[in-house]
Amino acid sequence: MAGRIDHLKKSRSERKLRSLRLGGYLIITDTEATEANYFHGLKEKIPSHLKRDLQIKVYNNKELDNIINFASSERNKDSRFRSIWIVFDRDEVKNFDFLVSQIEKENMNAGWSNPCFEIWLSAYFGEMKSVDSPEQCCTEFERLLKKNTSRKEYVKSDTDIYNLLVKNGNESMAIEIAKDRYSFKSSTCTKPSAMTSCTTIFMLVEEIIQKIQN
Q1: Measured between alpha carbons, how far is 158 from 165 in angstroms, rounded to an integer?
Q2: SS3 112
């Protein structure tokens, strides 16, 4: 009986530590809903036959002051999850550039948006208007959302936001638009805080989508 129990424990351990052929992603954000809901939707896009090889863990509502330490702690718990993305907005973050550099120094990825995440969401509808404030950014995205969907208003806590964007917008186009904007801004600006109406989120989304498709 003891031998059988030991065998079962070993089997569980082996299953738990099974390598992820396509990678393990930790996505951590300081916001409560919008970004987390978006990435949960992306996670659900992974087809069942790939879920043992490509996995995503999403954590939300983490304080920026401690978010790198939290990410390091979670990475150490499971060595298979080596692709770390800390997702946050420029918004009112005073040490924005320093935070980006610290994240990169820890071999993590800074998934930043300037001024806010909605600049990336707008790209699904073919536009990334030049905006400086989060308020302008959200207003512009709401306009596009009303124009392209049946939604009457933009609700940040919308749990179906990812599917709504994919169904009514164009993800491939969004990636290319954001990629072109990032390339242009990188050639003219030295700091992320100066790269308004820009985001790095497309890098993460493109990487995951390519793994799903290929």
Answers
A1: 11
A2: strand
Entry pTM: 0.90
> Which parts of the chain fold into alpha helices (H)?
2-16, 34-44, 67-77, 96-105, 118-123, 134-148, 161-168, 171-188, 201-213
Strand partners, 16: none
CA distance 20 to 199: 28
pLDDT digits (tens, 9 = 90+) for 137-163: 999 999 999 999 999 999 999 999 999
The CA distance from 181 to 195, in Å, is 9
The residue behind tokens 């002051």 is 65
CA gap 177, 122 in Å, rounded: 10
Taking only the tens place, the pLDDT of each residue in 62-103 is 999 999 999 999 999 998 998 999 999 998 898 999 999 999
Token pair recorded at residue 4: 């059988």
